[in-house]
Each structure stands twice: as structure tokens, then as C-alpha cells.
Specification:
single chain; 190 residues; 31% helix; Maf protein
Length: 190
């Protein structure tokens, strides 16, 4: 089976490919010749995942799945949420996003946060959603060199390490994306 994963993000593609069974070939947006940035104009994480999956289905007529992820911080009323990738501006700068987050949390005791990933699957005319959530805490400073996005400042509950300190395999056992993907893979295996 060939399935398009609607992403240009090589880190994300690597993380996902590592979890998928060998009999499913994943294609990225680049692999199918889609080099444009798919608009993410929905006001929810679910909505953006659906927009991306529908875009591929409509323009490339291929079965696909798309994900959207947001970091929701309790003390910031759920920010950055759907705006996580562009929290510090439209240029999608991970370091600037982390800097803004840490500045907004300065002097705040409550650092509870959660990552939420929603995967929208368009397969043989059906649309399904799979969700994964990882509860944790925002650290006061960056720890680790692995991962991307907010990984260096997010420590999942029941762990002494940030996502940035974890190898990919260890991170996927805890992560929101790993949980959503396991649900998707389980569905595809049926």
C-alpha cells in the first residue's frame, strides 16, 4: 500500500516512517510533486489536519493522511495551540517560538502543558480522525539536542527527560504523535 503523508517536514517524516509497517510505503508531499505550502487556516488542530488531507485528495487524487499538532499551555489559556508553529511569527522559527513561550511563562508557577496531535486520514472515500495527547510540563530552560519544535522545553509526565533529550524511539513511546500514529496504524492493519 502507498499512502501520502502530507508533510514537507523531513524530521516528522522520519519519525513517522520509523513507526510504520514495512508493507506501507509512505510518500511525502515532495515525493508527489506538491511543493506548495498547504494553507492551514482552520481555528482548530482537527480542522487544519482535515484541510491538509482534503487538499491532497482533491489536487492529487491519492489516499493520504495529514496531521496537525499544537502545544497547549494551561497558564496561557491553551496558547500557542493551533498557532504553535507560528507562535513568534509567520517564519516558523522554532527557537523564536521557544523564546516567546518561556518569556510568557516567566514568573508563572503553573507550567502544565499538553501536546495534542490529530491525524486526518482520507482512505478509499472515507475520512477518519485519530488523536494522541501527551501531558507534561514546560521546563524553564532548554534541555537536549534531539527533536524539533518545542521538544527541548517539554518534559512528559512520568519522565525525567525532555523530548529534546530522547532518542526518536524513546520519544515515540511517550509522544502525542506516537499515540495518534499507533491508532492510525492499528486501523490500517485491519
Amino acid at each position: 500500500m502507498k499512502l501520502v503523508f502530507a508533510t514537507h517536514n523531513k524530521n516528522k517524516l522520519q519519525e513517522v516512517q520509523a513507526l510504520f509497517p514495512k508493507d506501507i510505503t509512505l510518500l511525502s508531499l515532495d515525493d508527489i510533486g506538491c511543493f506548495e505550502e498547504i494553507p492551514e487556516t482552520a481555528d482548530t488542530i482537527d480542522g487544519n489536519a482535515i484541510l491538509k488531507a482534503n487538499f491532497v485528495k482533491e489536487h492529487y487524487h491519492m489516499d493520504c493522511f495529514a496531521d496537525d499538532t499544537g502545544l497547549e499551555v494551561k497558564a496561557l489559556n491553551g496558547e500557542p495551540g493551533v498557532h504553535s508553529a507560528r507562535y513568534a511569527g509567520t517564519h516558523k522559527d522554532n527557537e523564536a517560538n521557544i523564546d516567546k513561550l518561556l518569556a510568557n511563562l516567566e514568573n508563572r508557577e503553573n507550567r502544565e502543558a499538553r501536546f495534542k496531535t490529530v491525524i486526518a486520514l482520507n482512505l478509499e472515500g472515507h475520512e477518519l480522525l485519530f488523536t494522541g495527547v501527551c501531558e507534561g510540563t514546560i521546563l524553564k530552560e532548554r534541555k537536549g539536542e534531539h527533536g524539533f519544535g518545542y521538544d527541548a522545553v517539554f518534559q512528559p509526565n512520568n519522565s525525567e527527560k525532555s523530548f529534546g533529550e530522547m532518542e526518536m524511539e524513546e520519544k515515540s513511546k511517550h509522544s502525542h504523535r506516537g499515540k495518534a500514529l499507533r491508532n492510525l496504524i492499528e486501523y490500517l492493519a485491519k
